[in-house]
Amino acid sequence: MDEREKNGNGNHERVKDDSALENSPRSPLSSIDLAIDGAMNASIEQLYNNVCEMESSDDQSPSRASFISYGAESRIDLELRHLVGDVGGEVVERKKEIILEKKEESSDSRSSLNQKKPGESHSNGKKNVAKTAGSRISSRKSKSPDSVDEESPELGPWLLKQAREMVSSGENLNKAHDLALRAVKAFEKCAQGEKQQRLNLVMSLHILAAIYAGLGRYTDAVPVLERSIEIPMIEDGEDHSLAKFAGCMQLGDMYGLMGQVENSILLYTAGLEIQRQVLGETDARVGETCRYLAEAHVQAMQFEEASKLCQMALDIHKENGSSTTASIEEAADRKLMGLICDAKGDYEVALEHYVLASMAMSSQNHREDVASIDCSIGDAYMSLARFDESIFAYQKALAVFKQAKGENHSSVASVYVRLADLYNKIGKIRDSKSYCENALRIYLKPSPGTPVEEVATGFIEISAIYQSMNELEQSLKLLRRALKIYENAPGQQNTIAGIEAQMGVISYMMGNYPESYNIFKSAISKFRNSGEKKTALFGIALNQMGLACVQRYSINEAADLFEEAKTILEKEYGPYHPDTLAVYSNLAGTYDAMGRLDDAIEILEYVVGTREEKLGTANPEVEDEKQRLAALLKEAGRGRVKRNRALLTLLDNNPEIAPNCGQRPVY
User: At what angle do helices 328-344 and 347-363 cross, to 10 degrees?
Assistant: First the structure.
């Protein structure tokens, strides 16, 4: 359970609970994430606190909590946590008499409300205020929003209160939407020229957008949030600047939910710059935003930028933390830095970060967080082929998760998947299958409250293990299950496309080329329509579809796909990357089959030269390419005779078709 603790400046920082790091994905390359149910409710409740806190414009105490204090939640969870921060102000009714009483009792009521547990009703926090207001409050509580005078200045706050309570209690979101719309209109009437009322309007827009998100109406939320960003003026002071920051972050989250990672990153970056201007470069909240933005770059597989931002967060939290012990925030930074290093192949460095993060969490007695980090430690050891140490780390985490969460929790299943992958790598197939079956038993009957994306990710990872065992039917079956989970989820087109692309690879391996082609065609269409830039994953999928076209003897279409894949991978990876070279090789074979012998020779000469430089002349892969090039040159010297030799070589002797792990198709 989250606790809120007051720091020396009177602000309130979020302290993460024991499971705060648990949802970080095993690998940033294979994470699939949806909004967590219930995230919006807490955010709206916090937003309402701010509306009420700032409604008293007479309270200019320097100890008043900030408009927003950005928390430390993971970007990968996609929770809408940027709406407001942890404010401990009174929740009051909007009557002049109450405001007068509030000024007298401000200190005591803040103190008592700061002890409120997250998710607890605000009714207890109202007691002192309600007593002073007497029966007028009681009679007003029984009113319907429709009974409040449309011209009353109390209407906006009252409608916000009703909308917030309706959402918090899980009631009809459509009704909450109507109330929030009325609140927006009420604040619009009095927002012209008055700073405080403009802030009220901004917060009502944030609530309306959050309700749209809860209804899955993300596109409707975008213009609402764009407006909430336009209204606050930085020159009007800190509260207005941070209101603009809040809008940027929430809009970034909305784009994330829609699968538009590029737009999401742009908004987070804008929010970070605003926050830096207002709070300074070294404020702890700026560090939290740096980490949040770093996680967005991880999702976009932009690891260098993610590393820079994560290091900024780490430096800020070290400066703000204790000189003797690492903070929870620093531990979270180090775990993310470990994931980034892991993705870049810097496994030893990743281990260093994981161990330091584990020590910090252990010193705070966060056992479940330590277990989560142990899983990451096990991943790094497995990448280093230090299998005994990896097994020890996984078993240690497994014991903690079983004790803390039960035998059938998804965190237990995730460790089973890791163990299955490890035993498969060392050739203990029976043990690997046993762990796969244990994990599937949990994923097929998940505990109540298990996020669906965890189940889908589990199916994808187990599918990859079965694929590597050449049990392709079982692998395909699990991918279909994952696809079914996401098929109606908004904003998941890229995720669905990635799953389909992997299904296309498996169909290709099974020799079902027409089905493979059709699946790839569907995946490519989704990638094109997602609105995102052309990523490396898209380039790889194009290459795979090109291979399916070759098998169907659609050579011209294959050449077009290989050429597009070549352009994308040259931009994303550079011309010397193995994936780019593989596409060059495929394109050379296709050009030869089309009779474009000179083009084929030119490409293959480059591939051979580069492979010799990178791999050495004795490498089997280099030798294969050299033989292909020699045959082409010989054929060119005696005149080109149209033959299918190069095409058959491409089909029968292509080393790029290989099983892969995870959701990304690797050829």
Answer: 160
Q: Was domain 69-81+151-279 assigned CATH 3.40.1400.10?
A: no
> What does R_g of the chain's alpha carbons equal in angstroms?
28
Q: What is the distance between the terminal CA atoms of the chain, rounded to a whole angstrom?
A: 44
Instruction: Indicate yes or no: pTM above 0.90.
Output: no
240: amino acid identity, one letter: H
The crossing angle, in degrees rounded to 10, of helices 303-320 and 328-344 is 160
Matching CATH number, 280-382, of 3.30.70.2740, 3.30.43.10, 3.30.460.40, 1.25.40.10:
1.25.40.10
Q: Which two tokens stand for residue 203?
A: 């917060």
* Predicted confidence (pLDDT) per residue in 415-467, tens digit: 999 999 999 999 999 999 999 999 999 999 998 889 888 999 999 999 999 99
**For residue 456, which amino acid is it?**
A
pLDDT in tens, 194-248: 777 788 888 889 989 988 888 888 889 999 999 999 988 888 888 888 999 999 9
Determine the Cα–Cα distance for residues 279 and 13; give it in Å rounded to an integer.
Answer: 14
Tokens at residue 467, please? 């694929």
> What's the CA gap between 42 and 184, in Å, rounded?
20
> What percentage of the chain exceeds 70 in pLDDT?
69
Give the side-chain half-sphere CA count within 13 A for 146: 2
What is the C-alpha to C-alpha distance for residues 219 and 226, in angstroms, rounded to an integer? Answer: 11
- In this chain, the answer to whether the domains covering 69-81+151-279 and 280-382 adopt an identical fold is yes
Domain map (residue ranges) of the chain = 69-81+151-279, 280-382
Q: Is the pLDDT score of 368 beyond 90?
A: yes
Structure tokens at 100: 């007068």
Structure tokens at 48: 């309402």
Query: pLDDT digits over 575-594, tens only?
Result: 888 888 889 889 888 988 88
Q: What is the pLDDT of residue 532?
A: 63
Given pLDDT bands bounded at 50, 70 and 90, which one contains residue 191?
Answer: low
